[in-house]
Write a structure and sequence with these properties.
This protein is about 30% helix and about 25% strand. The chain contains seven helices and seven strands, in the order E-H-E-H-E-E-H-E-H-E-H-E-H-H. Strands 1, 2, 3, 4, 5, 6 and 7 form a seven-stranded mixed β-sheet that branches. A hairpin with a 2-residue loop joins strand 3 and strand 4. Helix 3 packs antiparallel against helix 5. The longest helix is centred in the N-terminal third of the chain and has 17 residues. InterPro entries: ITPase-like_fam, Maf-like.
Length: about 230
């Protein structure tokens, strides 16, 4: 392990998909919802918007936590938006909005951007060395994936929107739920579309002198034992 202290990862998101992605990778996060009002943030570029929202979520949770002497706490904030046809699309306003979006998106493609902000709340010398940033050391970046939508018909759109799933997600679609059949293919990391890119998380951890294997729990999916490496 890169640090002698045990690690705790706090996910600043209510998204079940993000939590499941971490759990499937052998990481059991604590969840603390940020409560950030996303409507207050405006940006011209999708990449800037999702990163600023991810930063705000991580900071909001980080400021509610205290560094511990016997534990190293990390906070990960994420946010996703779809760049489509020159617009930035977050969650639909309502069912009618979701229907209109799918009528435009079908048979076409967009780029799903997911911002990631990782904050290290380490106590002691590491934190003291970063006095200008009281929320802790951080690493942040955006992952982007091109999504090609199927040419779905009106009945499929109506049925999908009626499930309520597209109302709760950026871009009004998923690939790991009922919306999966309506996405023909993607170009990039599937985790980006789910809302949390594990390869990017690995790189952000490396910027904080950590390895993703440091976050593995003793038991992973399938009940196989995982021992810390290094």
């Amino acid at each position: 392990m890169s640090d002698s202290l045990p690690l705790r990862l706090v996910l600043a998101s209510a998204s079940p998909a993000r939590r499941k992605s971490l759990q499937a990778a052998g990481i059991e996060p604590d969840v603390l919802v940020s409560g950030v009002d996303e409507s207050l943030v405006v940006a011209d570029r999708a990449e800037d918007l999702c990163l600023e929202l991810a930063r705000m979520k991580a900071e909001a949770v980080a400021t509610r936590l205290r560094p511990a002497d016997d534990q190293r706490t990390l906070v990960i904030g994420c946010d996703s938006v779809l760049a489509f046809d020159g617009e930035i699309l977050g969650k639909p306003a309502d069912a009618a909005d979701a229907v209109r979006r799918w009528e435009r998106m079908r048979g076409r493609s967009g780029v799903l951007h997911s911002g990631h902000c990782l904050i290290d709340l380490a106590a002691g010398p590491r934190a003291e060395a970063d006095q200008q940033n009281p929320a802790g050391r951080r690493a942040e970046a955006v992952a982007s994936t091109t999504v090609h939508f199927a040419d779905v018909d009106d009945d499929e759109i109506a049925a999908y929107v009626a499930t309520g799933e597209p109302l709760a997600v950026a871009g009004a679609f998923t690939i790991d739920g009922l919306g999966g059949p309506f996405v023909e293919r993607i170009e990039g990391d599937p985790g980006t579309v789910v809302g949390l890119s594990l390869p990017l998380l690995r790189r952000l951890l490396a910027e904080l002198d950590l390895r993703i294997t440091d976050l593995w729990t003793k038991v992973a999916p399938g009940n196989q034992s995982i021992e810390p490496l290094g």
